[in-house]
């Protein structure tokens, strides 16, 4: 089973910039994003998160977010998805980078999960 990444932020430029960074180290990893609101406002959208889940071709997704309300929308979208989604309460940039590099290197999920644990937000 392949792994993909979904990144959610309150700001569109954050997710597009982070996606650009990750593509430099993990060009073969499927990364989808949901950032900001439709009107370019600050916030997150349940619909955009659901679309990011569906747009990612992988069946197992590692989901990362920036702030608390993004987590709430992610959790609601996870309940509606048939994909296996693992939500990480970890430092956004560092976690996404670590996960993408390890997926690119062919590392298994259990090892990636262990590597992300020290990045948990306390």
TrEMBL record:
Chain ranges of the PTS EIIA type-4 domain: 2-122
This protein's GO CC annotations: membrane
The entry's keywords: Transferase
Domain of life, per lineage: Bacteria
Entry EC no(s): 2.7.1.121
Catalytic activity: dihydroxyacetone + phosphoenolpyruvate = dihydroxyacetone phosphate + pyruvate
SUPFAM superfamilies: PTS system fructose IIA component-like
InterPro entries associated with the record: DhaM (IPR039643), DhaM_N (IPR012844), PTS_EIIA_man-typ (IPR004701), PTS_EIIA_man-typ_sf (IPR036662)
One GO-annotated biological process of the protein: phosphoenolpyruvate-dependent sugar phosphotransferase system
GO molecular function, one term: phosphoenolpyruvate-glycerone phosphotransferase activity
This protein's record includes keyword Transferase: yes
One Pfam family linked to the record: EIIA-man
Function description: Component of the dihydroxyacetone kinase complex, which is responsible for the phosphoenolpyruvate (PEP)-dependent phosphorylation of dihydroxyacetone. DhaM serves as the phosphoryl donor. Is phosphorylated by phosphoenolpyruvate in an EI- and HPr-dependent reaction, and a phosphorelay system on histidine residues finally leads to phosphoryl transfer to DhaL and dihydroxyacetone.
Subunit details: Homodimer. The dihydroxyacetone kinase complex is composed of a homodimer of DhaM, a homodimer of DhaK and the subunit DhaL.
Listed name of the protein: phosphoenolpyruvate--glycerone phosphotransferase
Source organism per UniProt: Vagococcus acidifermentans
